[in-house]
Design goal:
Number of helices: 6
Shape: globular
Strand content: 25-35%
Order of helices and strands: EEHEEHHEEEHEEEEHEEEEH
Radius of gyration: 19 Å
Bound molecules: pyridoxal-5'-phosphate
Structural class: alpha+beta
């Protein structure tokens, strides 16, 4: 089991559910919640660094964008969600205990989920308000490199939910299980046009002839916050790429909120020429400089 895997992290003692903090053991969610019955929901995963949720402004913006894409309204203001996050981090030991406290709080992982709320068992939505759920717990840091495999299943860039961070992640569950079965850490999808798209929980970048390239959002990939920040901080070209641009790359890397920028060592079992290569190392530095400057870029 990889050390950064969710299953390595003990459950956090409290969560925030529809307006209040509750112990996980006392939290009640309806079995008729549409998020559970049909995967009708959206979410955000953020890392918590030095006691602060990283890039919270961008994550809240994307949460609302994903919710709007499903026709859901997030029933809380940004200020309410920020206050909820701060309250939860403090309750779960992820915030500094006092301003004078020298020991930095541990690295954490925060998730904000909004679902369609209680609804009929089919695809129709009910009249109940959406459910808002926030969880947070400690996390391990990312690994130095990752191995990836390509999978035969396609991302549908024409889907009504393309580019939305919905809770319907069963395709990702199946693909990631395939990757783990093959001894790899992440699975990479092509889209229906056969172009390189993204991982189950990451965006993908390749280096060809010294240039850093990544698929455009029109490929159907998620507009990753780490991807977006890296494009702003480094020299990255967005362009459609064939799937095999990954296996042929001089170097390649993944980005995600929990992994930052991490070099790909092997693709489908074959090592890439360097991991991390020169351009990947530059990208790692550009991203960590940005994180050093501000926690809400
Ligand atoms: C499908 C998918 N693509 C890309 C990413 C990376 O996005 P971010 O950098 O915002 O974490 C994620 C994050 O979990 C994801 O689920």
């Amino acid at each position: 089991m990889p050390p950064w895997d969710d299953r390595a992290v003990p459950p956090s003692p409290a969560l925030w559910l529809d307006g209040r903090l509750v112990a996980i053991a006392d939290a009640h969610l309806s079995p008729l919640d549409h998020g559970l019955t049909v995967g009708d929901g959206v979410f955000e995963t953020l890392k918590v660094l030095r006691g602060e949720p990283f890039a919270l402004t961008r994550h809240l913006r994307r949460l609302r964008r994903s919710a709007a894409g499903l026709g859901l309204e997030v029933p809380r203001t940004d200020a309410e969600l920020r206050a909820a996050v701060a309250e939860l981090l403090a309750a779960n030991g992820l915030a500094p205990t006092s301003p004078a406290d020298d020991a930095p709080p541990p690295l954490g992982r925060l998730r904000i989920t909004v679902t369609g709320g209680i609804g009929p068992p089919g695809s129709d939505r009910g009249d109940a308000p959406p459910t808002v759920l926030i969880t947070a717990g400690p996390a391990a840091g990312p690994p130095p490199t990752v191995d990836v495999v390509t999978v035969p299943w396609r991302r549908n860039e024409h889907s009504a939910v393309a580019g939305l961070k919905t809770t319907s992640y069963a395709e990702n569950v199946v693909a990631l299980a395939r990757a783990h079965d093959q001894g790899a850490d992440e699975a990479i999808f092509a889209n229906t046009a056969g172009e390189l798209c993204e991982g189950t929980g990451s965006n993908v970048f390749v280096v060809h002839d010294g240039r850093i390239l990544t698929p455009p959002l029109s490929s159907g990939c998620l507009a990753g916050i780490t991807r977006e920040l890296l494009i702003e901080a480094a020299d990255v070209e967005e362009r459609p790429l064939p799937l095999d641009a990954l296996a042929r790359a001089d170097e390649a890397f993944l980005t995600s909120s929990t992994r930052d920028v991490v070099a790909i060592a092997r693709v489908d079992g074959a090592p890439l020429p360097t991991a991390p290569g020169r351009r990947t190392t530059e990208a790692v530095h550009a991203f960590s400089e940005l994180v050093g400057r501000t926690l809400d870029p």
